[in-house]
Write a structure and sequence with these properties.
83 residues
Length: 83
Amino acid sequence: MPLTVVLAVGLDSWPLATQTRVWRSAKYFVVSADSIGEAIDLFNDGDFDLVLLGHYISIENRERLTSLIRASGSQTPVASIWN
């Protein structure tokens, strides 16, 4: 089974930690970022199969991060979690 690397981005530590545990229990390798700036740095330095945006991230920040990812030429899927 190939290793799937997920960048989980969340601005609230409790939901981010819970989300990270769930993905790890499903055998994904998860890197967590608790700010948009950290997420950008990690994305630029890493090789991710999926970017997962937590539900406490504003629409503006979701769009900003997604735009930066697309501007880099990456086709990495970006998924948002909503309540």
